[in-house]
Design a protein that fits this description.
This protein is of the alpha+beta class and 791 residues long. It contains 23 helices and 19 strands. Helix content is 44%, strand content 14%. The strands form four sheets. An eight-stranded mixed sheet has the order 1-3-6-5-4-7-8-2, with no helix packed on it. A six-stranded antiparallel sheet has the order 10-9-19-18-17-16, with helices on both faces. A three-stranded antiparallel sheet has the order 13-15-14. The longest helix is centred in the middle third of the chain and has 36 residues.
Length: 791
């Protein structure tokens, strides 16, 4: 597996952790060594920097560490900026809470101080690299095109034109060689600007920052690339007759220049990089030979023809054209072979060819090369016979133009098109899919219970006097978060039949000024997992599923490697399946629709991380398979089963499977703070692991139905709430907060941060749904709960 970007393997403390005591050290371990300028810092709830200076450990450069100063209870955010071997910069943050009674100890009516600027969002343990700025994309393209034109042009001149001209007695093409210096200087300038762009991306846009970038592996490659390009430009411009020595030195510099691209690209990030780098060097080299040769043919051949004796010009053109055509065919073969090898190495499956940016880029590249093959056929069948006829004419007639008209037309068209296959890899396309409509309920669907009846126990009459000041404090706290840009969404807090909070804060849609409310629909992210687990337990209750049976008993087309995985293992995250949302390729496909089969195919053939039942690893792959199990056992699609057996019977009319349709979400949109829309993930990529939308009212109805036995009998519910590894039951976490038992589940995805929890022994329910990534829903829920059970 090729990583290609720094990926987080572990984090201490983990994201959204609740700690009884402050950690002594923060540690984040990545899959590859980090550059020395990578940094880690800690901020408090105000956004103030509490500690800084975190750096890679000298003994283990894959681990970023920061020794902690003394800190008190509160919410803290780790903030990191790392740079990998291939120059990709990854920025991220993750929040954790130090408890010790800190949340509950706040004086009545005084909310915990929150940041004056939006607080950092809790991050997934594998954040994607930041989108590459347009300037960086342009600079990478200019570097590659400049190097290819210069190196390939010189190879064409020295290997084809030079020997042919020597045979005709023509002189040296100094002017043509001087022209080759221009693209090389362009490459050097782009490399220097890229160093400046890297420094700016790290927040160090000055000479000192540029020097620090040059001190990294990728920065050193950029500096070497600029130096090689300038040196080669000087050498190719040298006058004199020492052609072989000059050309040999320049070609050696050109080879090193092209190798620098492979050493600074994805090939070097492979776990065994030798063969990928070799293939990449060949791929870039033959592409440069073709591209530079074609440009040189168009720009230099007229001068070469004029320099040759008049009677030898037709022979000169015939020889060069024939050799170049052979070179082009060989280049196509090598480019195809090395490109296919890279595709097989980086694409997880054939479907990735049309569902990922890399695959789409490869298809576009193939189309461009297909056009070049058409030109090759044209040259072979039309231009070359025309060249033979042209050469047979009288010299005085033939020399009215430097070459026959068909050849001139073909070369000009090819020169324009050739930028596509070499420039394509510098920009990966991103396409946002059109949404699909949510399915309508069937005619025979059960009549839903009125939601008012479910909410009635918590809305009957005014709050008791002892709860009124606490309710006011909760509302003030949430309002302040919304005013400061740290929260937008809805919250619900119910205690022993009384509703303390049930309202929205901030905007569900900032562009349309749609306010959030108690019945505003939000994406649930991983809060979908308790609902998926509930559906599985319904099938267990009816005897259609056995928790201890192999999943291959229920899944069609089940790999033999999954034979030892039980339904219990999927529910409790002890299956050993790899988490497909941690894969490098997931960032390329998360915005595009996917079928459940396509999602499962991303991890289906991968080896297990551990023997089923022997360890715990929270992974979305488990709940994707549970969604497929529900379909295979029930005969209904996952969305239909959830609607007919859970949502409609409970009157959850604002809950459904998120198809990506904006209408289904009532206009709700995800954001990063204020004014910045979040990446619009297509939740079909999460399926049963995170594809449901709902409201705080509907989720409260669900929890009440679980409590009163409407959905599951007590023995099945008890099994669902029994903790296994790491206190995870079946779709729920079972832990202690403030010395009280809490059953809860958090959720996090682009544009959604969620929490649902219940303190069953206290009659307390807390639900927080947010469309603002800067919200720490878990810490907010803990603070609200602490006002009740923390005293």
């Amino acid at each position: 597996m090729a990583w290609a970007h720094p990926q987080i393997l572990s984090m201490e403390p983990p994201p959204d952790a609740r700690l009884d005591a402050p950690p002594a050290r923060l540690r984040i371990t990545f899959n590859e060594p980090l550059e020395s300028i990578s940094a880690l810092a800690l901020r408090d709830a105000r956004g103030q920097e509490v500690a800084s200076g975190g750096a890679p450990l000298p003994a283990d450069p894959t681990t970023l560490a920061l020794d902690m100063p003394p800190i008190g209870p509160g919410v803290y955010t780790m903030v990191w900026t790392v740079i990998g071997d291939d120059g990709h910069i990854v920025k991220g943050n993750a929040a954790f809470t130090v408890l010790g009674g800190g949340a509950a100890a706040a004086p009545a009516g005084a909310p915990t101080p929150m940041p004056t600027e939006p607080a950092a969002a809790p991050a997934s343990p594998s954040p994607a690299p930041e989108p590459l700025p347009v300037m960086a994309i342009v600079l990478r393209g200019l570097m590659l095109i400049g190097a290819a034109a210069g190196v390939g042009g010189l190879a064409f001149l020295a290997g084809l034109v030079g020997p042919a001209m020597a045979a005709t007695g023509a002189g040296d093409l100094r002017r043509g060689r001087a022209w080759l210096a221009a693209p090389l200087l362009l490459c050097a300038a782009a490399a220097a600007l890229m160093i400046a762009a890297q420094a700016a991306a790290l927040g160090r846009a000055d000479l000192r920052g540029m020097a620090q970038v040059i001190g990294t592996r990728y920065g050193a490659l950029l500096a070497a690339r600029a130096g090689l390009a300038v040196t080669m430009a000087v050498v190719v411009s040298l006058p004199g007759r020492a052609g072989r020595l000059r050309d040999g030195a320049a070609l050696a510099l050109g080879g090193l220049l092209l190798i620098s691209f492979s050493l600074g690209g994805h090939a070097a990030a492979a776990q065994s990089p030798m063969l990928p780098i070799l293939a990449d060097v060949i791929h870039i080299g033959v592409t440069a030979l073709w591209v530079g040769g074609l440009l040189a043919f168009v720009l230099i051949m007229p001068a070469a023809m004029r320099a040759a004796p008049e009677g030898r010009r037709p022979d000169l053109l015939r020889v060069i054209f024939s050799r170049f055509s052979t070179l082009a065919l060989a280049s196509v073969a090598l480019i195809t072979l090395t490109g296919a090898y890279a595709a097989l190495r980086l694409l997880g499956s054939l479907s990735d060819l049309w569902t990922t940016p890399y695959g789409l880029s490869l298809l576009a590249k193939l189309l461009a090369f297909g056009g070049m093959l058409i030109f090759g056929a044209y040259n072979l069948l039309v231009a070359r016979p025309g060249l033979e006829r042209w050469a047979a004419r009288a010299v005085e007639t033939a020399m009215s133009r430097p070459w026959p008209r068909p050849i001139g037309q073909s070369l000009r068209a090819e020169a324009l098109q050739i930028d596509a296959p070499i420039g394509q890899p510098t920009v990966l396309p991103t396409v946002t899919p059109l949404p699909t409509a949510a399915p309508a309920p069937p005619a025979d669907a059960p009549t839903p219970a009125p939601l008012a009846a479910v909410l009635a126990p918590a809305q009957g009459g005014a709050l008791s006097p002892d709860l009124q000041p606490i309710a006011a404090q909760m509302d003030s706290y949430l309002s302040q978060l919304a005013e400061q840009g740290s929260f937008s969404g809805a919250a619900l807090v119910a205690y022993r039949g009384q509703m303390l909070v049930r309202k929205g804060y901030g905007l569900a849609n900032q562009e349309l000024n749609i306010p959030a409310g108690a019945q505003t629909r939000f994406r649930l992210a991983s809060v979908s997992k308790p609902l998926t687990a509930l559906a599985v337990m319904q099938l267990v209750q009816t005897g259609r599923v056995d928790l201890r049976s192999s999943i291959c008993t229920y899944l069609h087309d089940c790999p033999s490697a999954w034979g030892a995985i039980t339904v219990h293992d999927l529910l409790a995250h002890t299956s050993g399946l790899q988490n497909y949302t941690d894969f490098l390729a997931f960032a390329d496909v998360e915005t595009k629709p996917a079928t459940p089969d396509a999602v499962i195919a991303r991890f289906r053939d991968l080896p297990l991380e551990f023997a089923p039942g022997s360890a715990y690893h929270y992974t979305n792959s488990n709940y994707v398979l549970l969604g497929r199990l529900i379909e295979d056992v029930s005969g209904a699609t996952y969305p239909d089963y959830m609607r007919d057996h859970i949502f409609l019977p409970l009157g959850m009319m604002n809950t459904g499977y998120d198809t990506g349709d904006a209408a289904a979400l009532s206009g709700t949109r995800g954001y990063i703070g204020v004014g910045t829309p979040a990446t619009p993930i297509d939740t079909s990529n999460l399926f049963a692991a995170g594809g449901i939308f709902s409201t705080v009212d509907d989720l409260y109805a669900l929890l009440n139905a679980l409590d009163d036995g409407s959905l599951l009998p007590a023995d099945i519910l008890s099994e669902m709430y029994t903790p296994n590894f790491f206190n995870y039951g079946y779709g729920w976490k079972i832990e202690q907060r403030f010395g009280h038992r809490v059953i809860y589940h958090p959720g996090l995805m682009s544009g959604a941060v969620t929490y649902i929890g219940r303190y069953p022994d206290d009659g307390l329910t807390v639900i927080v749904l947010s469309n603002n990534e800067n919200t720490n829903a878990g810490a907010t829920a803990d603070y609200l709960a602490g006002m009740i059970v923390g005293h």
